[in-house]
Amino acid sequence: MDKNVLILDELIKKRIKKIDLYNEHTHIRGYHGCRPISIENYYKHGIKPISKSFAKKEAIARLCDEWIIEERVGTFFVSEQCKHSIKFAIFQGTDKLVFKDRKELSGSLFEQLTDAYKTIDFYNGTKATFHDLLRTDERDYPEVAVRKALLNAIIHRDYSFSGSTFINLYSDRLEIISLGGLVSGLSLEAAMLGISQPRNEKLAALFYRMKLIEAYGTGISKIISCYKGLPVQPKFENVEGDFK
What we know:
This protein is an alpha+beta fold and 244 residues long.
């Protein structure tokens, strides 16, 4: 076997005494039987070591020490064997009586994020408005708001639940439902003010390192700002076990 291959289970066995993976606030548990993942796969997704001075062979041995995340979080992000998924459904009207289309997005979290954004973008209509001679194109749902909502759903969901993240597109609205609700002790009012307490801190750090998010606590406020001056405003709901 290639020496540059990272075998998840072996690293966990060697470092389980040093790093208590099950006490991390990531809620990424029960993730077993991953196929070997090469270091190149991490680079492909933009995950790079903090230090560039050590050789690839050393990078494997020191992955937990030098990289911003542990094996489980990184593998969970780039492995195609991720057991969680995103379920996307399009309904004919304003309720769930008639399906027009549905699909389940699987693969790594990065692939699911990419596929979900592309799918929403495909169905996100464009309308033109005119001010004098100037034409302006507007999407049904602001692209920045869609991006932020998707990122929040993946980064902050509770991965101890086996269920899927749901994206529902109706004739009058787009819903993104993330399992787990807000972190205990954090109110919806506080979250809308920009207060942030990531449930999956290392996953959030990974997204930040990959420049997919700018900073913690800006997602909801940016979604709200995207709708400034528009007749329809975004709605946020937090119940036990779900955030919509």
